[in-house]
Specification:
By secondary structure, the protein is an alpha/beta fold. The protein has 8 helices and 14 strands. Helices cover 29% and strands 27% of the residues. Helix 1 crosses helix 8.
Length: 313
């Protein structure tokens, strides 16, 4: 007896609906039907309104804080497991809580590890994500993890800018590996910012390692939260003689006064993906969609095809 491969079904968590619609369109299917009921105290319950028995399903949802986004993903996975889905792939364009990937002081949690275990216990059989804050988070999982790089989205855009005297910059020492990878692809120089923090999200001091005089600088980072580091680095580079400063950041968290800092800074533009919905618009923000990237990877995963050409750093 022969069995045909059942077409995959794509579902979405609430906050990632727009991106999920674009992914489903690029994939060539319609989004699956999920209804979420909410109790008066805020408790919610997702319900699949179609059969998923024996199928591979993709659940799309970034898990950026607050906790509701992560909880919705966990409930969606659990419901799919109890509905006898054959494969349950959590597609998390932004993997939240990833900054807590180690104990950096006594008596603190390793939240990224905890999240990984919760996803597996809920029933996820595979994880697809993009630009983890720390590559080693993949090792927290016992299930397959496809860790995609937004460089496949950003590099064509940067090349089309045709910037002369291009220099790639890392806003901190931890991002130097990413900056060197971009510089290799673009055949450009690299500079690094060295920063010291007074506490989380507060920078006490910043220095620049390298020369940016007359250069068109592109800062590279995996996420932008309060935008304090990026804007301070951009202003410092312009003071040191840079011709222009742009920034590319995969995940636009943009919390607190980030938008105000961005508008007041000397950044020419901040280029991001749509992994997280923007809270509001800004003339300095340019959004590049990652929908085609995820759709192609999801299609290849379902049809057991290689996705190695998407691991471009």
């Amino acid at each position: 007896m022969s069995y045909e491969t059942t077409e995959a079904k794509i579902f979405t968590c609430t906050q990632s609906r727009y991106l999920a619609e674009q992914i489903a369109k690029a994939y060539g299917v319609k989004l699956g039907n999920v209804i979420t009921s909410t109790y008066s105290d805020g408790e919610f319950q997702p319900s699949y309104e179609e059969s998923i028995r024996g199928t591979r399903i993709f659940i799309i949802g970034s898990t950026n804080p607050g906790p509701e986004n992560l909880m919705e993903m966990l409930l969606m996975i659990d419901a799919a497991k109890r509905a006898s889905a054959r494969h349950i792939t959590a597609v998390m364009p932004y993997f939240g809580w990833a900054r807590q990937d180690r104990k950096d002081k006594p008596r603190v949690p390793i939240a990224a590890k905890l999240v990984a275990k919760m996803l597996e216990v809920a029933g996820a059989t595979r994880i697809i994500t993009m630009d983890l804050h720390a590559d080693q988070i993949q090792g927290f999982f016992e299930k397959p993890v496809d860790h995609l790089f937004a460089s496949t989205v950003f590099l064509p855009y940067l090349k089309n800018l045709n910037l002369d005297n291009l220099t790639i910059a890392s806003p901190d020492m931890g991002g130097s590996k990413r900056a060197y990878a971009y510089s290799k692809a673009l055949k450009s120089d690299v500079v690094i910012c060295y920063k010291q923090r007074a506490k989380a999200n507060i920078i006490s001091h910043m220095e620049l390692i390298g020369d940016v005089t007359g250069k068109n600088v592109v800062l590279v980072d995996d996420m932008v939260d309060t935008a304090g580091t990026l804007t301070k680095a951009a202003d410092l580079m312009m003071e040191r003689g840079a011709k222009s400063v742009r920034a590319i950041c995969t995940h636009p968290i943009l919390s607190g006064s980030a938008y105000e800092k961005l508008e007041a800074s000397k950044l020419e533009e901040l280029i991001v993906t749509d992994s997280i919905p923007l809270k509001k618009e800004s003339q300095k923000l340019r959004v590049l969609s990652c929908a085609d990237l995820f759709a192609e990877v999801m299609y290849n995963v379902h049809h057991n095809k290689s996705i190695s050409n998407k691991f471009v750093m």
